[in-house]
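Exam prep: given the inputs below (a chain plus zinc ion), describe the expected output before reading on.
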Amino acid sequence: MRNRFILLILIALPLLIFSVKTYTYTIQSGDSLEKIANKLNIPLSIIIDYNPEYAYKKYIYAGKKLIIPEKPVIIYEVKSGDSLSYIAKTFFSDASLIAEYNNIKNPNLLYIGQKLEIPYEYIGLSFNKNVDVSWPVWGEITSLYGWRIHPIYKEKRFHSGIDIALSEGLPILSAVTGKVVEVKKDNGYGIYVKIKAGKHYYIFAHMSKALAVVGEIVKKGELIGRIGSTGISTGPHVHFEVRTLAERSIDPFNLLPGFKYAHVPIEKHYMGGN
Ligand SMILES: [Zn+2]
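Solution:
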């Protein structure tokens, strides 16, 4: 019995060490989420990550409380088959920086369930700033734009975007610099964010969480959501769709940079990066 108690403490300890401490902030009159983000010097997307219901709110009210993390980091739980370099790629980040921040001496020694802190400022570091439209995630392309046999309805349907699969909870970065025009929960698209930039709309669908608010200007490479499988979906992925301002979809490959702009070499159909 005593041994089991000690074992429980040993298991519980790392979780406590790695969970981010939070405090509450009471909304003041005259506050907007952007103002609060500036005041607390924390990215807006992190505030919404901790208070996900605020992604859909049109108004915020003085007196209501927000949960704010003391450190602007995203916690990533190590899964079977992960390596530090793979994790770094999915955050468009740098493995050595993540190792240093988490005090990891040997990057080959990660354990399943280990919680890594990924500072927000490290996310998107390797994003290509030299192209107009970037890959929003680093994952596997599982479905192209055009006619296909629908994976759920098993009939021929037009696929209005491309699907890129990767693990639940990983960051989705804005492919463009533009204005957030919609953040919604839809039966088909699940939780999605729609951004207007230049002559196009860009839609990122099936998120587990949207981390942007309507009216916000987001920069290319900024965190706008997390990977999920909401709506009509067979697994965690992002459906990335580009539309003209007349709401007609076009093939995202017409705008995305080629594979040569991927920040990592193509392994199978893995890509992303830029
Ligand atoms: Zn799709």
